[in-house]
Amino acid sequence: MDEFSLIDVFFKTIPHQQDHVIIGIGDDAACLSVPKGMHLLVSSDTLVSDVHFKPSWSAYDIAYRAVMVNVSDIAAMGGQPCWITLALTVPTVDEQWLKLFSQGLKDSLDRYNMALIGGDTTRGPLCITITVHGFVPKGRAIRRDGASSGDIIYVSGELGAAALALDFLDGQPIDETDKALLMKKLLRPEPRIDLVDCLQAFATAAIDISDGLSADLNHLCVASRLGALLSLDQIPVHPLLKKYRNNNALDIALSGGDDYELCFSVSPEHEEPLLKSLAQSGVTCYPIGVFEKGQAMRVKQFNGEIIPLEARGYRHF
Ligand code: ADP
Ligand code: MG
Fold first, then answer.
1. Per-residue confidence (pLDDT) for residue 284, from 0 to 100
2. First-to-last CA distance in the chain?
3. What is the per-residue pLDDT across 80-103, written as a single tens digit (0 to 9) for each?
4. Using CA atoms, how far apart are residues 48 and 277, in angstroms rounded to an integer?
5. How far apart are CA 202 and CA 147, in angstroms?
6. Which ligand is nearest to the Cα of residue 131, counting in written order?
7. 3-state class (DSSP) for residue 180
8. pLDDT per residue over 257-293, tens digit each?
9. 4 CA to middle of ligand 2, Å?
């Protein structure tokens, strides 16, 4: 199978229902229309074999996860995802693998009515780059630099499950039901698209937690030129972390990546309407602290003592 029939069979066949795609896969470039009143959001994420995923994972999971981690960046900007392009590098043409990969792509794109509009296919060490596009009402993108001193910091959902899942990949003993739940957290992250309408109305800043809460919150602090004060007793630690890593559960929740929850802020006067709107979304969000003047992150411990909080999370270099 050559490059072109591979594209025809596994990628061009992925259907979509989008009026905005004027020309999709098959020409020199895609041609797209951005709806009136909308701005276009664009973001890329590369997933490298053995760095972001194990080559032994099912190709379905690899594709599904690759789409979802990209969609998460659109959620963090308060947008709705619409298209992706896919730059795929594979060592060989393994039709079984490509079929599963294509199915994972299709199912993940279907979740948000997204379209695959183009890409590139090359031979080399397994690597996947997806560029996702999304729409946000003009001027309403939620930025990292929008927080003010006194704004309350929230996270969506509980933290640390994906990091714990990575710990168990090497076959350490764990209850089967728990393992299935953790693997789902790692392999099928749920980008918080269901929060974007509430956040767009009230959030002052937002970021998705891909590298770890302390590392990603630090990005909000740097961009907004603020410090932050967190309360250790308010950090939403995933219950399975408490079960399997009780000694350093909080540490993992603060520094573990791959959860793709959102960290966002709201001014005190908008907290009540935001919470009302969030309640309807069905996603539990937890207040974890406040932005404050200064440049450092600090954390209030269980005994009330306040100590510096280091930005720790995954770093490539
Ligand atoms: P060109 O040589 O002009 O860059 P290509 O031969 O690379 O074109 O690609 C042909 C068409 O197939 C283009 O529309 C391109 O966007 C699309 N395409 C290539 N690889 C992929 C892929 N992995 N997924 C989706 N579309 C792809
Ligand atoms: Mg090309």
1. 94
2. 38
3. 999 999 999 999 999 999 999 999
4. 38
5. 11
6. 1
7. helix
8. 999 999 999 999 999 999 999 999 989 999 999 999 9
9. 10
Q: Is the pLDDT of residue 315 over 70?
A: no
Mean pLDDT rounded to a whole number for the chain = 95
Give residue-wise pLDDT tens across range 157-171: 999 999 999 988 777
Alpha helices in 20-143 (DSSP H): 59-76, 95-111
Q: Report yes or no on whether pTM surpasses 0.90.
A: yes
| Range name among 1-5, 46-50, 76-80, 221-225 with the lowest pLDDT average | 1-5
Contacts of 236 (CB under 8 A, 6+ apart): 155, 157, 158, 159, 253, 286, 288
For the chain, what is the largest distance between any 2 Cα atoms, rounded to a whole number of angstroms?
65
- Is the CB of 75 within 6 Å of ligand 1? no
CA–centroid distance, 209 to ligand 2, in Å, is 32
Residue whose CA is closest, atom 4 of ligand 1? 28
Distance CA 71, CA 144 (A): 17
CA 150: distance to chain centroid? 26
Select from 121, 123, 129 the residue to mutate for testing ligand 1; criterion: most ligand atoms less than 8 Å from CB: 121
Distance set, CA 243 to CA 178, 238, 269 (Å): 10, 9, 37
Q: Pocket of ligand 1, candidates 25, 90, 126, 128: which has the most ligand atoms within 8 Å of its Cβ, to mutate?
A: 25
φ and ψ of 5, to 5 deg: -70, -30
